[in-house]
Write a structure and sequence with these properties.
Chain lengths: ~190, ~90
């Protein structure tokens, strides 16, 4: 289920904007689903609020003197807002991805509706990587943050709240070593 | 100390009988909100396209369809509201 996956290893049907020919995606990572619980609950609350409202507020009260057409307009606006609230939060979660390829790491960020930021660093520029899992939820669901120090323009990459940070950290180190060996072989 | 100046304002006759139905203000506000929301919906469609260009997945098509569906529903609602209110 790519629509709800936060941890994709070598995904076959995914490509990204600046992908080079022959470049292979090793990991495509998103924030763990636990991070989304807050807006999912809010979205569900927005969905059921009108139903509870109509059940709780008796139809005889003066507040409900508006016509059927008005109720329809207001109700539809409410559900459109709810729909766009859920879609917008999903889009931000779905497209804020961290990509590890066999050549580089890429951090794609979308803030709100009109801000986009893409940072990348080749594997040869990575100097160090660490990861941490802290907090009750993070320990329970095994998610955490991988910090990658680079000699690139952006000195530090943070893959925040990603699932299996240990595995990602290990794989990044493997890729760095593999690339280093390959480079040294070429130089010889 | 009383003032000799007359500070009362003589409103023109047509303004003396002027009254605003609060419902008209609410209707105007509602319609304006819908128009601003329409601009936002166009932005969401554009945003989905930009995001899908950045990362292409099988879900991209569904998300584009959702954003267009939302925009279409909003346009229908605006037409309905305009017909009903004005």
């Amino acid at each position: 289920m790519t629509a709800f996956s936060a941890f994709l290893e070598s995904p076959k049907d995914v490509s990204f904007e600046s992908q080079e020919k022959g470049e292979h995606i090793v990991f495509l990572l998103r924030r763990h689903w636990v991070i989304n619980v807050k807006w999912v609950i809010m979205g569900l609350g927005f969905l059921i609020f009108p139903v509870i409202f109509w059940l709780v507020v008796p139809t005889q009260t003066g507040f409900l003197f508006v016509s059927k057409e008005y109720s329809f307009i207001v109700g539809t606006i409410w559900y459109l807002f709810t729909f766009i609230f859920i879609l917008e939060n999903y889009l931000i979660w779905y497209f804020n991805v961290y990509i590890v390829t066999d050549r580089r790491i890429i951090d794609t960020d979308f803030f709100g509706i009109i801000h986009k930021k893409v940072s990348e660093a080749p594997l040869r520029n990575i100097e160090d990587s660490t990861y941490n899992v802290s907090g009750v939820l993070a320990t329970m669901f095994n998610f955490g943050t991988v910090k990658i120090q680079t000699a690139a323009e952006l000195p530090e990459f943070e893959f925040e709240h990603i699932p299996n940070p240990g595995k990602v950290h290990e794989k990044i180190n493997d890729l760095i070593n593999y690339n280093l060996k390959k480079r040294l072989k070429k130089e010889k | 100390m009383g003032s000799d100046f007359d500070l009362s304002i003589d409103f023109p006759n047509f303004l003396k009988n002027f009254s605003v139905n609060p419902f008209y203000i609410a209707e105007g506000f509602l319609f304006l909100t819908l128009l601003v929301y329409l601009i936002y919906s166009f932005l969401v469609v554009r945003q989905v396209y930009i995001m899908s260009e950045t990362i292409t997945t099988p879900v991209s098509f569904v998300l584009k369809a959702f954003s267009w569906l939302h925009l279409l529903a909003l346009i229908v609602l605006i037409i309905f509201t305009a017909v009903y209110l004005f």
